[in-house]
Every structure is written in structure tokens, then in C-alpha cells.
Amino acid sequence: MAQEALNAQAEMNNTDARLFVIGTELLKGQVADGHGKLISSELSRLGYNVKSIEILPDDGSVQTSMEACLSDTDLIIVTGGLGPTSDDMTRRAIAEVAGVELVLDQGAWDTLYKRVGERIHGANEQQAYIPKGFTVIENPLGTAPGFMGRAKGVLFIAMPGPPRELGPMFLERVLPFLTSLSGHESQGRDEYSVFLTPESKLEELCVKSSRPSCTWGDRFQSYRISLYLGGENRALMAKSLSDDLGPGLMVPGDLESWDLLEQALLERGLAISTAESLTGGLIAKLLTDRPGSSAYFKGSAVTYCNQAKEKVLGVPHSIIESYTEVSCQCAQAMAEGAMKLYDTDFAISTTGIAGPTGGTEQSPVGTVCLGFASRFQESQSAKLVFQSYGRDSIRRRSAVAAMLLGCFYLSGGSVIDMASAWQYI
Amino acid sequence: MAQEALNAQAEMNNTDARLFVIGTELLKGQVADGHGKLISSELSRLGYNVKSIEILPDDGSVQTSMEACLSDTDLIIVTGGLGPTSDDMTRRAIAEVAGVELVLDQGAWDTLYKRVGERIHGANEQQAYIPKGFTVIENPLGTAPGFMGRAKGVLFIAMPGPPRELGPMFLERVLPFLTSLSGHESQGRDEYSVFLTPESKLEELCVKSSRPSCTWGDRFQSYRISLYLGGENRALMAKSLSDDLGPGLMVPGDLESWDLLEQALLERGLAISTAESLTGGLIAKLLTDRPGSSAYFKGSAVTYCNQAKEKVLGVPHSIIESYTEVSCQCAQAMAEGAMKLYDTDFAISTTGIAGPTGGTEQSPVGTVCLGFASRFQESQSAKLVFQSYGRDSIRRRSAVAAMLLGCFYLSGGSVIDMASAWQYI
């Protein structure tokens, strides 16, 4: 019922929106808020006027804040305070402000029961209650659903706080709905995954490649940026952006670099092993984060010291002596050693300098050598020099680059050609 | 956080602060705010209770927002809206709320004149005006000085918005002043790191162990919970909580499990290697996240398949055949194999079932065997069965448990005794 009621409302062009972000940890400065930027940028693109973003604790004070702005606000979005340990604050505050009671939503209860079983009794059950007359927004990634509804002339939307739940719910459920409300033609929107590109550089390139009737939005994640393009000319804009970045750094869809590698391995029925110095087990960790990875991942030799590179992987002492351990020669020998040790079809390796210390004039911090070996192809290797944004970032980007180049290597390409065409790493 | 905790937190911190961040670009989502996290984390450290962070446009609406909170706020910090193009919004809003006029500060005028010369006439000159009775905060990095002063029982502090001006001004000028003011340091607050305990369980235990004049607050992180105890009886409360949880799960300070392991290794001058099946490289990744880890970490054999356990680590085929790979026998042989392969003093190993599939009646998802070997001690192992909160969580908790038990093993303890006394894993 509620969906139709919502759609029946007047058009909402140029309407005033306010955003409330609930999270005590944000007020203690333990975490920086990312929801404000994500939601306000999308709302602004749709022509909403965002009047404030208010970060509040998980103590119900959002109720007072919402009441104070009812008269000059058309859209209120609240994130967080919906979980079972939150004492139900956001849910209750919105019901109070809307002047309705909280009622059990049977659909939400059934979904929750499927997820948590008998643990539904107790605190968990609160999550199936929503303000009367409101509509549930399903949350496939967590226990707390969102909800939305109209009351006192205001459209209220509540979403869970954890970023991995909020992001998809906002972008895939709420945003299309708001777009339809604002009277914007729903022209669709394409999602891309962008790798190895600094956020500020991507934004600069978006401005540069921007075309009439094109819109864009991005979401920074640990190992990539999700980029959303909208409007009639979005395919052209995507092409021009992708050309700017370099080969393989912008792929359609919602994909991590390890998704691409997994796909390449499963398609070809290949087993992989890794040899990791610089990344210290990170690639193995990322591949085995996935259930079912034992189908293609056999193991990794993390060889942090040079003795281990020689003893465990059989890298010749002469290679390390002549070229140092941060060399294409060493990376290639490491990959070959891992392939042999784990008896796999394919192997990738990483060696380099993550810093903050250990850089030399010849090999500054950020210098990374990646090796690739296969039962069916000549070994290859590539040397990259990442701009240094810190140890973690260098390790993460090295893992991503190794996986992207690994896919290209499996398809028969030259990893040096690919890597040297990357523009902004 | 539960309501009791928040109430306690509010009492514990006797000064209520609110932060207003001015910047239209923040509301359009073009830039993410960083001031909120910086300022709120430092204020929280000093014991201030940050009640809200509000992002507002450069249109003077901060005046209404400040007026609305005067009665329940002791400290108001405003950033931004001080520059010559800002139409003087923040300066005027604070003067209005404080009920005083704006007056020329000759010192600020002189400083500005040195900086911009004759360009001082016009919009620039506004920047030398401050609310009457307030004090200028010099800004060596920009044209707009900050200012602070007391009015209507509230301490107002205004600082410029550009991060390269705000950061130094806040950290070098404002923060030392607030520290001297608050006297919060003497009130005392102890921080603990709590491992392997579900957040909801810890909160329940805090309520149970709570004592008169004790306060607590917590922060959930990926690999532990930071717990903050305040009040006179906090030492007793800490003891009772720690007893409830079990040995080694609550340690004083801001420490990750890998900090504890690093410390144990460095103290004893030992080198470590790991053998990881279940954790797939995660322990190696966590240890090598730290710069300088090469001093004690040599490498890890990630052996995801059984053939690799046998071939790389030398686990006897008969052990896997008789006891399966998820057994204490296998874990112990893996640790011994890693120690030998990497030629280290000490090794830890993990094998188990992270799920979601692969569980059996005998070894359900969450069953984990951890092995420990040392050049100087008998090998040991322990079997744990974690409650299943998903694959990631089981892998993370296994890594933490292996590191905590590893420390205990190095100190000569029995890992089985320790693990079996853990109450809520």
C-alpha cells in the first residue's frame, strides 16, 4: 500500500533535505563519516537542496533534532541506530515524530527468522518493527531492514549504518525511488569498478570527461572505487574515462580484483598458488576470504626474509646477490618456485618496498616487482613504482595490480605492456 | 551502545561540546568532512562529550542552530565561514548569538596588512573584525584568524575551514588551551582491549559488573573491542569483568593481539613463522602490516589443500588419514613443519572450518585447531569451537586466538588450560 501512497505524492523537484547520521563512534572521532558525502552528493545531483548533515549519538536525540526541522524540510534521511544493540532508537524516534506506533512487519519478521533462526527472540526481534504505514526496504546484507514513509508532509527514510549495508541499500533501492519522485527521467545508470586510481585523480578525470546530460558519483572502497555514471551520454563518458586511466583499470560491474582473478581461473580450470614477500599473505587472505576458494587456490609461500625465498621457493642465491630481492628476476623466480612447490598451473608473486623505511635511491618506497609463471606460458614480470600513500596503501595496490596483471597474463597478454600504460598509479 | 552506557558516559564527561562545520561544498557531497573526526577525537580524549557534529551551508543558518543548543552546551566550535568570500557569516552569527557587536582588532588588522598590503581594503578587511571581548587566534597559514570567547555560559571557538589552516590552529593553539581548561586528565579513565567476545555479550557483562560511580563505554573494532572504564571503582569493575571473560581476553591499554605477540617475540628475541590453512595468510598479513616486522617474522606457509600440508609442511599422510586435517595432531605437525621450513624459533598454525559449507557433525563450522611449536618447548595444540557469526568472523577470531595462545605458550603456559577457560567465544 505504502509504495503507491508514496508515488502518489507531488513531485519533489528542488526540495529541501536533511540528513541525520547516527553513530556514537563518529562523535568520539573514532571513525570518519562517509555516509554524508555519499548521500548528499547523490541528492545534490538529483536537484535536492541538502540543508544539513547532522551527526548524532545513538541516544534518541535525533528525535528532538527531527522535530525542530519538520516545518522547513521535505525529506529526512536517517542512517544508523537500527541494529539490535541500538535500543531501537532510530525506529522509535521516527515513529514518535511521525505520530504513529511501531508495528510488526510480518515480511520483515519472516526474513529475519530465515537469517537468525531462534535467535530472533529478544533484542533481534525489534528489527522487524517499523512505523505504522511505512514500507520496509529489504536488507540482503544485514539483519536490520530500512524503511520509508510519509508523515506530516515529510518523507522519512531510515537505513542501517554499517557502510556495506548502507551503500547498496541507498544506491540500489532508495536512489532509484528518489529519482522517480523528483520527476527525473529514469535513464538508468551504469556501475563500474575502478582500480589503482587515487580518488582525487578520478574525480578530476570525471570533471574533465564530463559530458552534457551525464552524471557521476563515486564510492571509495579499500581496494577500488565504485563509479556510477548516468545520463544519455554515459557510454561515451565511460569510454573516455577508461582511455584516460589505462587498460583494465575500469571494468563494468561491481567487482573486486579477486573476483576477476577467480573468474579467469574458474573459466580455464586452473589452480593458483602465490609467493608473497611485500604483500605478506594479503593476496592469499583475499582469495580465501571467499567460500569455495579451495577449488582453485592451493596455497601461498609467504617469504618475508631472503633465506626463505631461497630455501622455500628455491630462488637462486645469485639472483638476490646480483639483482637484489626487489627485482623482476627475483619476482619471476619466486612465482616459478611457488608453482612448483604447490604443484599448481599458475602462480603470482610480489616483492617490493612498502616502507616507511627501506627505500633506496634505486628502489624508493613504492617500488614493486610482480612475477607470473604458468605451466603453459613463459614466465613474465613487471616492475611498478607506486606513488607512496603509506605502507598499507602500497601493499593493497600491489595485491590488486598482481591480480589484474595475473588475469591479463592468463589471457596471453604482456604484463609489461599493460602496466606501462597505467597512467595514474 | 546501550542506553545505560550512554547515560554513564554523559555523566562521566562533564563538559558538553557541539561542533558546527560550515561548508556548502560539504552538503553537495563534493568533499568529505575531515574536521569532525579530528576535533571530536581530540575532544573525546580530553573527556569532552561531543553531542553533535552539524554540517551547515555558508548561509548563516549556523546562527539558528547555535541558538537552539545554548542551554545544553558548554563548548561550541565552529569551523569555516570566516574567509573574505564567505560574506562574514560565522563571525556575524557568533556575535549575534553572543549578543555583542563586531569590532576591529588592531593586532589582527596589522597582521593582515603585512600579509595582503593594500588589498586589505574591501572584503579582506572583514577578517580583522571579531566579536567584542573575544580573543584572536593567530593564523600564520592564511588570512582569516580564528577567535574565541565566552558568552551566555558558553565558550565559543571559531577557526577557518581550509584543512591546512584548521589542523595546525586546532592542534597547536586551541587544543593546549582546552586541555588546560578542562582538568579532565585528572579524572581518570582506563582503556582496555577485549578479545574474542561478542559486542552484545560484553555490554551485557558491563551492565552486570557495573559498580557505583563506575562508567563504561566501548568501541567495536574488527579484531577486538576497546573498552573504557571510568570512576572510582573502575579497577574493581575491570577485575570482575576480566574474571567473567576468562584469562588473557581483557588487557590494559590500546593493543591488538598482534601487538601482544610482537612484544612477546621482541622481549625474547625470537623469530616466528606460521602455517595457515583456515586463516589463509591472515596472520602473516596482520604481522606484516607493521613496519619493522621483518625483525621477527620470517614467513608463512599457507597450505590450503591437504597435499600442500603434506608436501610443503611435511605433515604425515597418516595423521590426515587418521584424524582429518581439522585435528590437534595436524595443527601440531603443521606448526612443527613451519618452524623447520622457515628455520624459526617458534611457529603457530591454524586449521579448521570457516564455512559456510564443509561442516560435519563431528566438526561443525567454527571448529578450529591451533598448533604451537618451539625450539625450546614441547609442541602444544588446542581445539576451539567458535559460535558461527560467518566466515570472516571465524577467520578473524581464529587469528586472534592463535596469537593470544601463542603469547601464553611462549610464557610457559598450557594453551588448553587457557582456551578452555574462555567463556564466551
**Widest β-sheet, arrangement of strands of chain A:** 2-1-3-8-7-6
Extract low-pLDDT stretches of chain A: 1-13
**Structural domain tally of chain A:** 3
- Largest sheet features of chain A: 6 strands, mixed
User: Number of helical segments of chain A?
Assistant: 16
Beta-strand residue fraction of chain A: 15-25%
What is the CATH architecture annotation of the largest domain in chain A?
A: 3-Layer(aba) Sandwich
Class of secondary structure makeup of chain A:
alpha/beta
How large is the radius of gyration of chain A? 25 Å
CATH superfamily of the largest domain in chain A: MoaB/Mog-like domain
CATH class of the largest domain in chain A: Alpha Beta
Identify the most extensive interface between protein chains: A-B, 76 and 77 residues
Ends distance of chain A: 50 Å
Give the overall form of chain A.
Answer: elongated
Fraction in helix of chain A: 25-40%
The CATH topology label of the largest domain in chain A is Molybdenum Cofactor Biosythetic Enzyme, Chain A
Calculate the mean pLDDT score of chain A and round it: 89
Quaternary assembly:
homodimer
Number of strands of chain A: 17
